[in-house]
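If your schedule permits, I should be very grateful for your opinion on a structural question. What I wish to show you is a protein chain and, alongside it, a tokenised description of its three-dimensional fold. Would you kindly read the sequence against the tokens and tell me how you understand this chain to fold? Here, with my thanks, is the record as I have it:

===
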Amino acid sequence: MLMAGKPFHPPQMHEFNASVQLMAKRLQDIPEARASYLTNGWPVDDSILDETDAIIFSWMEAGVLESCKTDVIA
């Protein structure tokens, strides 16, 4: 799962949402890979992560890992 943070700068300064979408598209070219993405931060419903093997974060918020639910990512 590729997870983009919420935008907090003007457009085209830090394109987290666009970067995870592009990365997921490129990973889908690899037959053995399966990639999904989430935009605008941590999902409201954690169940979307139930089948997730790994999470790659793309954002720059201070304390981002502290804001994640540790029982989900631990």
